[in-house]
Write a structure and sequence with these properties.
CATH superfamily: Glycoside hydrolase/deacetylase
Number of strands: 10
CATH architecture: Alpha-Beta Barrel
Helix content: 25-40%
Largest sheet: 7 strands, parallel, barrel
CATH topology: TIM Barrel
Number of domains: 1
Number of helices: 8
Radius of gyration: 17 Å
């Protein structure tokens, strides 16, 4: 029986020319991408450029909204007014949707960025705000987030499809949470170790961690594009997955 996995990357976060080059090299190697839409990074021009690059390579597109925090790159947890946050997230997603409409491309999914992602995993009210904002893009939108999270519960309650995500280049804790970025070893630096983790998660194998074990069931694997080595990571992960008989394609 054929096995399928999506390989995704967060895109349009052009902090430098180097990152732009990394994203250009990475795009042909993934099957879906989540485009920054103004909350933590990006503007109409970068959204359009990234969308056109995705279209060129047949890559499925989603929105990547965040807390409105460009100074902190969306990686700081913020207190929020529910109404204002709903309005802001809706506007971010709508900005990308307007770009995709003019480029005649569909929006397939919505995935929160950074601290919003981590907070919505465990905050039921925040997860609902996020899913309600995403739903305004249409009932066919897929919500992307960690398996077994409040995001998944909120998506199910809203009758939206959910794609569970695993991370190729981040160290997990046995709870299923990602090790905080400031902690030693939080970012897996070795390319071969990233490829091994990608294959282990795709297979549903048990990860052996410093504080215990973890098993994940996912439909998509994320590679962060904001660090050097992202394209090498994608090539190594694809090679490992291909050799094991996985077909890499966008989730449905």
């Amino acid at each position: 029986m054929a096995r399928f996995i999506d390989l995704n990357a967060d895109m349009g976060e052009y902090a430098s020319d180097m990152q732009r080059d990394i994203e250009a090299a990475l795009m042909p190697l993934v099957s879906s991408c989540s485009i920054a839409c103004g909350g933590h990074a990006g503007d109409i021009d970068t959204m359009r450029a990234t969308a056109r690059l995705a279209k060129q390579h047949g890559v499925s597109i989603g929105a990547h909204p965040s807390y409105p925090d460009r100074k902190g790159f969306g990686r700081r947890s913020l207190s929020y007014d529910p109404v204002k946050l709903m309005h802001n997230l809706t506007a971010q997603i709508a900005d990308l949707q307007s770009v995709l409409d003019t480029e005649e491309m569909p929006m397939r999914h919505v995935k929160p960025h950074g601290a919003l992602y981590n907070d919505a995993v465990k905050d039921e009210a925040l997860a609902k705000i996020f899913v309600d904002a995403a739903r305004k893009a249409g009932n066919s939108i897929v919500i992307v987030g960690p398996p077994g999270s409040m995001l998944e519960e909120a998506a199910n309650a809203a009758k939206l499809a959910f794609a569970a995500e695993g991370f190729v280049d981040r160290l997990y804790q046995s709870t299923g949470a990602l090790t905080p970025r400031g902690a030693a070893g939080a970012i897996i630096e070795d390319i071969s170790a990233r490829a091994r983790q990608a294959l282990a998660i795709a297979r549903g194998e048990t990860l052996q961690l410093a504080d215990g074990t973890l098993q994940l069931a996912v439909q998509t694997l994320c590679i962060h594009s904001d660090r050097p080595g992202a394209d090498e990571t994608a090539m190594a992960a694809r090679a490992a997955l291909d050799a094991d008989g996985f077909e890499i394609r966008a989730f449905k």
